[in-house]
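Re-running Cation diffusion facilitator family transporter to confirm reproducibility after the cluster update. Everything else is unchanged from the original entry.
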Amino acid sequence: MGRAAKLAMGSLAVAMVVLAIKGAAWWVTGSVALLADALESIVNVAAACAALVAVHLSATPPDANHPYGHAKAEYFSAVLEGVLIVVAALLILREAWGAIWAPSAPDMPGPGLALSVLATTINGVWAWWLLREGRRLRSPALVADGRHLVSDVVTSVGVVAGVGAVALTGVLWLDPLLAALTAVNILVSGGRLLRESVGGLMDEAVEPALLARIRCLVSQEAAGALEAHDLRTRHSGRTTFVEFHLVVPGEMRVAEAHDICDRIEVALKAELETAVITIHVEPEMKAKHQGVLVL
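Result of re-run:
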């Protein structure tokens, strides 16, 4: 089992533990805000299940039907997580709306808040670790899960502060108000996640900083060539695809042009770790006098 799959399994285990703790916090208090927090944890469990399946599928080697591999499965997982986040937010808004018209004081706020703080601490530590390892492994599913947990932590901190304020001040409408604010925060998080995940499915180009680095490496390593044009890039899960046309002098031998391509590929793979590079060699009459000029 790979590192990413082990992290995905750990995420599922943590999500189930946190859900149980948050459910207990809501059960002892009856707080609508804590119920909203628990509902988001149900989404965490579902998202962790989807991430586990996606990470396992994305690690499947390329086959005849999928010659480019299965890495995009992780984007589907991230899209599903975004949809689940939006659904959870709508459910929370529904609960908050009903509670606004019939607010009630939370029971046993002390034990409930203690349980919520425990769950938030577990979530915070795991979110940090998941984001760190997800970025290192270039796993969209793990990074999406980590970002969602960060949003959950921020929400939980606000909920704990608000329920504590209700207990101290007796202002009952603060509880459903906090639940509604929680839902809005979750909606923003879900919308951002959906946009990024759909961008991966639509083959968006790599981020500007990485694109500039790729152009720089091509320019530095292509000594002997004239220019590189029609540079195209995209991410597919942990793999980055780079393709471009390399213009060389017309009298250059095939072996010499091949050596230039090898140097470029070695440099790009050292930078990108997992990369698939396609270089189309052209004679100088095909030069466009634009794109990447060779230093």
